[in-house]
User: Which sequence fits this backbone?
């Protein structure tokens, strides 16, 4: 196996911090909109709480993830991986609630699109994980 194929096989199935950066960017945009409001209703408070929970957890994913990728490869860590999962879920839940607050149809549309994207991601991830790297 060539060095390029070996590097690709070592890094192709790891969680990319790209997702954290994307979630973090969207979360901060929504938080900025909530901060400018004086009186928040219940849905806005719940959404703001979830989004503000996700910001430090997603930041951890970005900062620590690069070092973990080099040192620990595919090992599972309850502390780190649970922070990543909670960060992702709180971000998605906060965004769904924020969109739901605009109108329930918008919230349902966002939720359905997110579930569809998750299914496609899982299918692609599983098919890439099972396919040998370097073989056509």
Assistant:
């Amino acid at each position: 196996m060539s060095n390029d194929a070996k590097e690709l096989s070592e890094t192709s199935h790891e969680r990319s911090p790209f997702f954290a950066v994307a979630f973090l960017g969207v979360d901060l945009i929504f938080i900025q909109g909530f901060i400018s409001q004086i009186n928040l209703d219940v849905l806005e408070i719940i959404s703001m709480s979830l989004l503000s929970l996700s910001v430090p957890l997603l930041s951890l994913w970005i900062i620590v993830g690069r070092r973990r990728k080099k040192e620990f490869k595919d090992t599972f860590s309850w502390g780190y991986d649970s922070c990543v999962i909670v960060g992702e879920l709180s971000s998605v839940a906060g965004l769904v609630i924020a969109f739901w607050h605009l109108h329930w149809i918008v919230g349902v549309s966002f939720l359905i699109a997110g579930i569809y994207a998750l299914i496609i991601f899982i299918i692609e991830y599983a098919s890439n994980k099972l396919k040998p790297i370097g073989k056509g």
Notes: Residues 13-130 form one domain. The chain has one domain: 13-130. The helical segments are 3-11, 17-35, 42-72, 78-102, 104-130.
